[in-house]
Amino acid sequence: MRPLAWTAAWIGVAFWSFLVFGAWAMTRIVFGVARWSFGDEVPGFPVEPTSPTWLIDLLQGFGGVALFTVWAVVSAGILGTTWLVTSLFGRSGKEPGGRSR
Question: For residues 14 and 78, is the Cβ–Cβ distance under 8 A?
Answer without folding.
Answer: no
